[in-house]
Design goal:
This protein is an alpha+beta fold. 32% of the residues lie in helices and 22% in strands. The strands form two sheets. An eight-stranded mixed beta sheet has the order 10-4-9-8-7-6-5-11, with helices on both faces. Helix 2 packs across helix 5 (114-125) and helix 4 (93-100) runs antiparallel to helix 5 (114-125). It starts with 13 loop residues before the first helix and ends in a 7-residue tail after the last helix.
Length: 243
């Protein structure tokens, strides 16, 4: 990890510019790693369609999941025990983000542009992003990526080409969060699926207050994980569920 140069941009306080809680805070800037770092440190993230100006969001309320509250499904645990996938951390960030950028079966377009991929890959090279990969033999079949600052862990996107493999990556992230006593993992926007997994909502002000504390804490030592290969069968043993 190295120190990023100061960002050219100063982001506004979301509470001051968006008192009605619409979520859109500002438009413009760029997607350099310094700008991304500054944005996440202030509770913002980029979300826009290709060809549109860069939009920075801070939703009200904020969706987070506390790792200790995560509840893997029984079917997921069974599949992890039955199908012996390999799981790694930070071994193929570029592959994961590019796979997340591919069109999905339910949508022809993606918001993850080349500009976004370049910015987050540079952020990863600087030590402020992470990925989790799921492998079937020598092929990546699922995974997720996000941003990490101090003890702040921010989820961005995931993908899968086999049943449940993105959920396996998510479960692995929850275990990593438990081991490192992370207070929450940011899920950004509320949806029913996340809530069914144990996510909750925080008011924007509560989230912003917590954020300023967690990003100042000692960061996760990602290097101690990135040379390891974990078995989905082994990870499934951590579940308290009984088949």
């Amino acid at each position: 990890m190295y120190t990023l140069p100061p960002s050219e941009y100063t982001f506004p306080n979301p509470m001051e510019v968006d008192p009605d809680g619409q979520g859109l805070i500002c438009i413009g800037a760029d997607l350099s790693p310094s700008t991304l770092y500054e944005a996440y440190s202030n509770g913002l993230f980029p979300w826009f369609s290709e060809g549109e100006p860069i939009c920075w969001w801070s939703p009200e309320p904020r969706c987070v999941i506390r790792p200790q509250d995560y509840h893997p499904s029984k079917s997921l645990v069974r599949n992890m025990k039955k199908l012996d996938y390999k799981i790694t951390i930070n071994q193929a960030f570029d592959h994961v983000i590019r796979a997340c950028a591919l069109p999905r079966s339910y949508a022809d377009e993606t918001w993850i542009s080349e500009e976004i991929m370049e910015g987050y890959c540079q952020l990863f090279d600087a030590g402020y992003a992470y990925s989790i990969e799921v492998w079937e033999e020598n092929k990546i079949v699922g995974g997720l990526y996000g941003v990490t600052i101090g003890q702040g862990c921010f989820g961005e996107s995931m993908f899968s080409t086999r049943t449940d493999v993105s959920k396996m990556a998510f479960y692995s992230l929850m275990l990593l969060g438990q081991e490192n006593q992370l207070p929450w993992i940011d899920c950004q926007l509320v949806n029913d699926h996340l809530m069914s997994l144990g996510a909750c909502t925080l008011s924007r002000q509560t989230y912003l207050n917590s954020l300023q504390d967690v990003i100042k804490q000692p960061p996760i030592d990602w290097k101690k994980y990135q040379d390891s290969v974990f078995s989905s069968k082994t990870i499934a043993q951590f579940s308290q569920l009984v088949e």
